[in-house]
Protein 1
Amino acid sequence: MQRSLEVNNPVDTHTPTTAATATLEMRGISKYYAGVAALNDVSVEIRPGEVHAILGENGAGKSTLMNIASGTAQPERGSLIYEGEVLGPLSPTLAASLGIAIVHQHPAVLPDLTVEENLRVALPSALFAGDPAAAVREMLDRVDLSVHPGDRVETLTVAQKHLLEIAKAFAIKPKLLILDEPTAPLGAAAVDLLFDRVREIVKTGTSVTYITHRLAEVRELADRVTVLRDGKVRGTSAVADVTDAELLALIVGRELASTFPPKHAGSKDSPVNFRLKNFGGPGFIDVSAEARRGEIIGIAGVVGNGQSEVLRALAGLEPFNGSVEIEGTPFDEHRLLSRAAFMPADRQGEGLMMSLSVRENAAVAALKKFKSLLFLSRNKEVSQVGASLASLSVKAPSMDAPVSSLSGGNQQKVVISRALLSDPVLLIADEPTQGVDVGARADIYGILREASGRGIPVIVASSDAKELEGLCDQVLVMSRGHVVETLTGDEITEERIVSAAVSSTTEAVSASQVAREAYRPSGIRRLLQGDYAPSILVAIVIVVLAGYLLSQNAAYLSAFNMTTLLTAATGVAFIALGQTIALLTGGIDLSVGPLAGFLVVIGSFFINAGKSVGQLVLGLVLMVVVAAAVGLINGVLIRYGRFTPIAATLALYIALGGFALLLRPQQGGFITQSFQDFVNTSYGPIPLFFIIVVLVTLALEYFLRRRKWGWRLRAVGSDAESSRRIGISLNRTVILGYLATAILVFIGAITLMGQYGIGDPSQGQSYTLTSITAVVLGGTSLVGGRGSFIGTLLGAVLLQQALNAADFLQLGTTYQYYFQGFLILVAAILYTFARMRRKRRALLA
């Protein structure tokens, strides 16, 4: 690549020996965010059977360009030509149908769904024809991902999530495969396997676009390379025709003197400022080390051998035994938690608050520095945060831009900025340059070295042995939670680090695998960790409470009482089932109660004694139409009107209550007795409509677990952005979800008509809170993505059982509210505690 390419000829005219139509040609692509050009007149050609690397600094436009190529983003100008045909607007679904697959830098996986569900919701159904279980296992084995298909994805490690993303891409046998920083979290073995798979598909004619910050990977894998800087193409060339120095100059726009700063040159007799002795905790044991001022300690090893666990314990996030001394002062986990700065490997999951701004994320750990008397000084905050971000060359539209709008590398720089602003006594970095460009890496290395020189102990874990070789003064090599070798001085070489890690595990591989299998959840344990655990708990409570009530009063299980209890639970259950759908999408529907009451009011004008069958049918049809209209209005307001779910459904809550009062200012319109008798039909002690609600619940549960409707519903609530990237229509899913909610409320209104027999404008108001209570008791998450209809049905039964118990024990109406509040409180505590434990297990996985 010649320097003249940067100005005179951004795209070379190199053609392969065998002329062929380009798989994808991107011509004159421009894309703007908030008026800032992410891409400016970019043209790139991806040819059949080649690996085309895209290089550039963070924020250069690489991921944006690939998002456009995969249909995730739309360009303002330019055209896409795929296999010689000009494409119109491209969506992720259309891109997948054309054979375009992408592995995103941040995996488009859905944390609340299982591994199998992630595959099945994202991939064509034809791939699972015949034996779905065998197809899933084959997809996982292709990338050597050793997890159970029933494991929830939130429990996977960052590397495993990336492998799952890679498995999805390879499964469709793409014509064009886009890999955006796929190796950043992977160990050496996983990287080698990925490269082998890439070479295999390239031989079949597949085109591969490869985004990376690692020049060594470009040399190993790519045929051609294009460099982007500031949203423009700076040059394209065959890899063999360009030197690393030329590539670096085009990437950063300047010459880089050296990637790594000089190592510590102090005396070995200088005092020790950091000491670990017999340090042990979850996943590691007996780690000992010491460092002097200016020295950086590195931690190496095959991914998953205790490195991250050591760092988390040093950050005070996990309990430990042994001792930690900094400047001669002992620190326990509580002091470390408040004084150490931790830069986690998973910057989006742990490192950043994605809904906050760049400034807020950088400043949050250093608020005391910005105090002026009793208040925070905005000027101090802006000045110091701005200086920190500028020193790291963070590219953002402004400090008040959402941190989610930044590129992955710039997000990492914000994490580093926060750590440095907090004035830590210990700086802990887990994969600090993961997804960071070469220019910024040099800056980060310099900052870590400068912090160490100021006397702050610095601990760095990295899967890149070359990085540890160039940066660290000593390296602890770990295997299965033990330090197997400590390297210092000239001993720290890439070869020694890799050799120590590999040789120490060669004889223990099978044992290690056995250990992982031993900790893999069994089927029963997986069930208890899944969405059905709350259902099991609620069922147990129902049985225990029934046993207690029976011991107090033998009439508790009488046919009359069972019919009364189940009839009351049926109406609540139908409305709560609808509420469950809304909550699964990550929303809520406050209008369900007033809608049910309004529908009963409408029915009270048509389903009366003396009215014809035609009028009765007309009344039911009108109720269905009104319910459907309300559901569609809720969905449209949320998706197209950009209302929050609470605001949209609250508006309908108020409106429906007003309409009900307009139609019937007071109670009136008695429902015909024959209709009430039908609705209240029982078979023994079991009401007909309770049987119907059980069947509806089972049908909904089946579709929730085994069909794409349910997977998409939960996917949107689990992670809306990832859902969009894998081709799920958010608008359609949410709107149809609220429509289904309203239809279930309609059925619930039918049961209320049978129970109350009169049109009452205030009748449905309480059912909004009651439905939410039943859903919470059933274990459905209030933030979306997880839950079960079975749990909701059981929650409705338990709720009515608690109310029934207060009457049976003659405790009075007040105790009914006490019981409801107590049940909600217990459910919230138990489910929150369970979720915290799941997250902790995931972090230690």
Protein 2
Amino acid sequence: MTSAAARRPAIPLWVVLAAAFAAVLAAHATLLRLPYYWDEAGYYIPAAWDFFRTGSLIPFSTLSNAHPPLPSVVLAGAWKVFGFAPLVTRVTMCLVAAVALTAVWRLAVITTGKTQVALATVLLTAMYPVWFAQSSLAHADLFAAAGTLWALAFLLEERVWAAAVCFALAALAKETAIVTPLALAVWYLVTPISAKTEQILGTRARRIAALLAPALPLAGWYVYHWRKTGFVFGNPEYVRYNATSTLTPLRVLLALAHRTMHVTLHMNLFVPVVAALGCLLLAPVSETNGSGADLSPLRARIPMTQQAVLYVVIAANVLFFSVLGGALLTRYLLPLYPLVLLLCVNTFRRRLESWTGLVALSAAAFLAGLFVNPPYRFAPEDNLEYATVIRLQQAAVSTIVEKMPGATVLTAWPATDELTKPELGYVKQAIPVVAIENFSAQEIEKALGMRGSYTAALIFSTKYDPPRLWLSLGRHNEQLDTRYFDFHRDLSPGVIARVLGGHVVWGAERKGQWAAVLRFEPVPGATEALRRFVLPQETTSARR
């Protein structure tokens, strides 16, 4: 239950929103004009672009994944008012990030009643590398996080129908957001409540109904999608990759280990988490001082009923995304990071007099994580590495445009879209492509069979491979990653050029990411080169 003081915030929410938007915008100033990246280019921008041009809620310039249309509607609205450009898109996403951070502020004030805790939690959330990177990327996950966090704030304020509206908006942004209200409905169903709480909130049935209600608009969307496409949950390949192929028990256990790491250790999150665990060994300090000599009340914990809600949300999402979701993307867990940080920050304050020192240490760790890559494989969109990838591909595409007019380019996704869709910001006119899946030995063997159909190649690292891989279980780990998580090894530009009979005309490598442009000339014996050189090397590396 919240106090009257918590209902009347000392700082108006519109001030928090304005300050958060200004800060996020300033922090992302050098990133706002970047063209679109990876899943932005592959789905979200094409889907919004189709709606912007035609009003179609079902994308047709890319395969429909049955994602709900709210992000497309919001982005198209921004483009309608301010024009179609990456700058408009990224500023819009910064505004969505500010809305989500305002929810974090409100959630912290409701649960702790302390503006200092709210400020520290918002600051750490905004600086956390995964959150920072997603704050200007046009993915549905940020929309869903904003809706979910506001829904939790309303729920803890005992405004269950306002929470239901926000949960519905979250689910209409990203369908997987529905797991949170459903999990909470189950929690309220099995948890006993006091008579006083029952009197304030109404009947158990009313609360459960409010949490189940967001499933109705989502179901309506799926009915609409089915009537338009014949598929309920998207194209069959999407369903196979994200659902039916993920249900192996071993795969679920491996994914659960990854997801647990994501919410406790990843991108230096271990700094506040370990610090909070250490603080639990200390006694709570007085609200006025840490001497223990007076009778002042001890600093309060977040009420256990509210903590339980946070733990249910964290656990439900970790379990859900361990079972479903082909890619182990950390952005799927975006609403969880503020909750983890809120629990950590209030533990700092409750157990340590000079608690702001641990906030500063955590902030320093997050700042380092934005620029320093971890010593294990990760998705570049988890920190500023994604900007490195974009700039490398920009340079590669510019080389093709300037030095190879009329070329047909061998490449893999997302460069296939970057070269053929001018709206993504890489080219002014479409360039014909020949597509392969990636740059592994098997795919280069396929490319060899299509040798006469392309005159150039844009190749790049499709997986981040750190210069020194510290955290690895060796050959067995790579076999499991290959089997369950789409791991592969890209061949180097020199090897690809030698096998396909070309030469490298441009190449660059930055922080473990690389890209190159190749020009091809007919070379006799290329098939023999593949058999003698490439395949043995791939076999050797897989055994390592």
Protein 3
Amino acid sequence: MFVLTALVYPCVLALLCIGAGLLTDRASGGWLPDVLLGAVGAATLIGISQLTTYITPLAPATPYALVMLALAGLAVGWRKLNRLAREWRAWRWQLATGALVYVLALAPILAAGRPSFSSYQALTDSAFHMLGADYLMRHGQTYAHLDLRNSYGQYLQAYYGTGYPSGSDSLFGGSSFVMGLPLIWTFQPFNAFMLATATGPAWMLARRMGLAGGWSALAAVTATVPALVYGYELVASVKEIVALAMILTLGALVVTHARWLWRPEGVLAPAIVLAAGISALGIGFGAWALAAVVVLGVVTVRDVMDGRISALRLLGLAALGGVLVFVCALGTWTRLAGSLHVAQTIASTGNPGNLGAGLHPAQALGTWLTGSYEQAPTGMPLALSYAIAAITLILAVLGALRVVYLGEYALAGWMAVTLAVGIALIVYATTWVDAKTIMLSSPVFVLLAWSGIAGLRVSAARASRRSTRGAVRQSILEPRGATGGKSAREPPGPAGGRSALSGSRPQLRIAGILLTVMLAGGIGVSDAIQYHASNLAPTARYEELASIDTRFAGRGPALFTDFDEYALYMLRDLDVGGLDFTYPPVGLRQMQGHGYPVDLDRVAPSALRAYPLIVTRRDPTVSDPPSAYRLAWQGTYYQVWARRPGDPAAIVHLGLSGSRPVQCASVRRLARIAASHGARLVAAIPPETVTIDLAGAEHPSWTYTHPGLEMTRAGRLRATFDLPHAGAWEVWLKGELMPDVSVTVDGHLLGSIGGELDGNPHNPDTTAPIRVRLGAGRHRLEITRGGWNLAPGDGGWAIVHQVFLTPANTPEASEVDTLTTLAPARWRRLCGRRFDWIEVTRG
């Protein structure tokens, strides 16, 4: 699966985009620059996928439509493709640039060597994009039939049913369905690929700034993965990543406007790119499209005044472009009211989302030396970040002046308006929009900084040429055979022509080298720090959820008790509801709400009757579902409970802690209720557990967080525990563990645990248990976190909340071993014993 999703899938997606780009190029008259084929092709595929999903009966045919479009483009553009293949040496830098950015963007997954995604525990919006992309491919852009009683339907309605932009999701879903791959494993490769498509227009803009060869490639790479953009890609902000590629492509089209502006077929490509941006980001994309519209408007007004084109022809071309933009973003325009509402809500909300505070404007300048763009560095990293940002800003100003000096007025105008729009949004918008604006502006600043460095390199080259000419002239004037001294014609003093020029040349050259290292190195180090701190999604656990979905498909709705909204996609065939989700099932809200652990003991038994299935995490410290449910399946991480057909809901369900003996008064009250209803008493016996005291454990001053111990650096935890009897035991860790930690008992290594994350760090779950045979008495536990290494996520979450043991030879949740059934008259047998819960139930 790793090879298919991380290596084969991007190649297939590249063929789809190139084929679609060739088709658009042919339809546009063949003027499209080669480096824009990928980005324009992606925009074309977005337009087609939006149309097929808008026409609901065609939605399942979307993958086939994408393939046929690409094949048609490869057929009609075969000659151009053949020429590119023959001349591959001429565009090897562009090819290498795109491949390098893809590898950098997907580095955590490639280094891990397993299918995963790096947005875990950072931004759960990716869960909704997976859910929405799957739904679009199966049902299209129609949401009237959704069951809004459960979380699955509520999420889809709240996002996509209200005008949420779906352009990126329709391409993501369609391209993944072409290969039949799980969307959860293609999501990060899709984001990395779309970021890589932005290198084409970035390279083209760098060339217009006077950079060539490896320099333009270096500028394109660093402009595509500055710290903030790289952070957005790691958390898979798919809308913004796709929009960034479209914004840079619009900029490249603006600077080449002379090729297409007055040709009717020429407006096809710009219109498709503009529509793709609107489909991906919504009406809010208009703020960034404004830069292209303003520059093109100035050009057209000038040409009309010069008599190069008539006003009537101009209106006709504008109308044609408008029709194309409308058709290619049809889903957005027909839901314009909803799209405007979404844009207005984002622009005015005070909710910062996953941002604890607003981003720093300095982050737009490429370097931010911390593990997350959401946080500010401290100490020396903060000082270095601001120092590099200040120098980058100076270079960007110099670069802007150089762009004007080169006569690239369209490029200068596009960049100026783009940055002006960004500054206006930062000043007047809210935290959430500010963050998007700073991120989308970052590549422009980095490109301008490279233009400034290019200016220094040109100045150094000119100084070198002047020095060389001066040296030649001086050698002609000197007497033949002279051994020293100055020529009579050479001006005296250190400010003389040759000495001044030869002195400035190495200084400019050294300055250019240092600034290059600073700019590229600052961005590279920033990205490396984020790579090191990334949290990768657990592969095995999601594969187990996928097997549950396959095994129990169509038998829902299912209640899901784990805090993991990715289950909405993984269990999509079970109509999932989650009590602690943002949108819980109707009538099943728990008091603590979103993100808190689920306690089924607090749910009325009658409310559970609507759920034939309950999916729970394997956790011996948590109560089992009510007696009406039997254990239908158990894996490494999850248990599936099925409701017995015809079993009535319990009359009373009394939740107990399992750690304290039950009081006789409570049992007596339940017995009276049972006797009055002709019912019985059912009690759930908790499994035997031995909990290890972490509060008294020895460790290297790790930090206590709520409610666990954060292993902030390398070190070892030591604790002792007593077992009541010998036998096979299972060691359970509850927490959030991204880096590998080793578990040792009595000096014997039991194994390593890593990549085990779930929900959020304040709502932990158990990892897979480790089996060990131990004798009765005292034992010593050690948990070790190793030193720094290059593994992805080595700097991610490492929190232990609880460690406990349970006997391994007792069948978990077996009805014979864990349930006790009594007649009401025998209620005294329950007094003073420990139970998870006691029910009064009929039957």
